[in-house]
Amino acid sequence: MVVKREVCKKTKKFMDDPNFKGHKADSGTTTSWHGRIYVVDPKKSEIAKIMGLEEQGEYAIKVR
Q1: Between β-strands 7-8 and 57-63, what pairing exists: parallel, antiparallel or unpaired?
Q2: Alpha carbon of 39 to those of 25, 26, 27, 43: distances in Å?
Q3: Sign of the Cα pseudo-torsion (22, 14, 6, 50, in order)
Q4: What are φ and ψ of residue 27, in 5° steps?
Q5: pLDDT digit string (tens) for 5-64?
Q6: How far apart are CA 48 and CA 21, in angstroms?
Q7: DSSP per residue, 16-61
């Protein structure tokens, strides 16, 4: 049985990502997401700039 990981609805951060241990999902979490991206250097990443990501880590691309 595959268990989908939880993602913050607002920030699209994976809740079990070790880079975000202190993150609290004020807007709630969901397991309904598609695609993921891992940002290594947000200052140099064009995708991170387009998505508005400012921190290193793992993010979902689409969250419902």
Answers
A1: unpaired
A2: 20, 22, 22, 10
A3: positive
A4: -90, 5
A5: 889 998 898 888 776 767 777 778 899 999 999 999 999 999 999 999 988 889 999 998
A6: 20
A7: T-GGGTT---TT-EES-EEEEEEES-TTT-HHHHHHT--SSEEEEE
What domains, with CATH codes, occur in the chain? 7-63 (2.20.28.90)
Q: Locate tokens 């993921």: which residue?
A: 36
Supply angle C-alpha 30, 32, 38, rounded to 5. 85
Output the six-digit token pair for 43.
């200052």
pLDDT(2) > 80: no
- The CA–CA distances, whole Å, from 55 to 18, 24, 35, 42 equal 13, 15, 18, 6
Structure tokens at 3: 């268990």
